[in-house]
Amino acid sequence: MQVFARRGLGAARHAEVAEVAGMSVATVFVYFPTRELLVRAVLDEVARFIHDDVLVPIQRDTVSAPEVLRESAAAFADSIDRHPDHARVWLDWSTAVRDDVWPLYLEFQERIQTLLVSTTERGKREGSLSADLDSEDAARLLIGAAYMIAQMKIAEIDSARVRHFIESLVAGFLFRPGGGER
Q: For 118-130, what is each residue's pLDDT tens digit?
């Protein structure tokens, strides 16, 4: 992850991974016989981490849907402090519009969007989110905001400012005008 975060998806190589891992290049090739398999393993780990470790634990019915969305954005921001290399690889992956990695990114993004759509639909049913909110658009906006959150964290913007951005994002477009949470 460290090598891919530093060098990028297009430039990271087996030899650099071996050097950072403190093993021989041959050993890395045993586990990842091709560059494509090495890249895929890194991308699979980024997808697993963001989906399973960061977002899925927040998805619970015991708190309001808006709070789940707010906590999801905050958990993503916090994950960048703990695992900045995952965030850097994610940012690189999201702009790598190449035949080898772009379809994988679209699959990953669809998994995240499905989580967010489910939460916004629950909020609409419960009345905590506007009934006319388009859940797919809301999910896309939240995913788009994740880019800004990642950039703010990597640029070492004050955490209070990042939290304010998250609060503004959630309050600004999700809640019902004249009602609901604010």
A: 999 999 999 989 8
